[in-house]
Amino acid sequence: MSIFGRSTYSSAGYAAFRPSYPPVLFNRVLAFHNANRTGNTSGTGTLLDLGCGHGLIARAMAPSFSSVVALDPSAGMVEQARKLTTDPKIAIRQGSAEDLSFLSDSSVDCVVAGQAAHWFDYAKVWPALARVVKHGGSLAFWGYKDHVIVGYPETTPIFDRFIYGSDEPVPGTESLARFWELPGRDILRDSFRVVVPPESDWEDVTRIAWDPDRKTGDLSDAPKEALWQRKTLKLGEMEGYVRTFSAFSGWKSAYPERKSREEGGKGDVVDLMFDEVVAAVPAWKALGEGKWRDVEVDTVWGTVLLMARRR
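^ thats the sequence. predicted structure below, dont judge the formating
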């Protein structure tokens, strides 16, 4: 089971600190979905949300469909989704993308997966989707990774060293590198290139992928359609976001004695990471103890959007 499905993982923290998705992304997915449909199709059909997490996508896209099925393997995520969801047209259930036996043949008009498609076993998922997605139905899988603070390229190597570095970023403290679940993380970082919809079942395959320059933070080459995961965050919110990483959950399990300062300890790997991030920008450091958490920063992530249509 993925770390996200373990009882020790904070589904509430995920719901609180993970960035949401902008309307432009949903509009692009819906435009692709409706491209070959005739008549007034607004608010019709069934949406299937795989790896729904706390139900963000299901709630955002529900107005465009008559029914939504939101599925996640984690009991904690399902609990969060049910707490946050009041729309009666959204059915939330625990289950995996690999087992869609509860759905009838050709019963799904659109299937989506946000920040989840890199975990799927496609030897099982592709046949399952071929059965349940109707002719002309659509698929949209998307993800984001490896944030950059725009205008502060000096912070990027620090994040990379703590998150992916093979050496100890601080003597006596291991990085998050060995705690990433593979091949899932590598699939996401490589923009789903190994996720290839079978030609026998899918057509009109469209892949839009982009990564910011991690040396300069320059966004000038970013295609407009790829620059959808960009947020203004407080540094304290970014710290909370990093603590939602599955790799950090694994790190905590390996080093239970390393308590965060908020927990009354001397500091964990994320505390040490942000010590260096703040120290790298004199204006942030000059704010003094804790006040850096209120600094707002322009943050951007690398993105990938894969879409296809059922033959």
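The longest helix spans residues 23-34.
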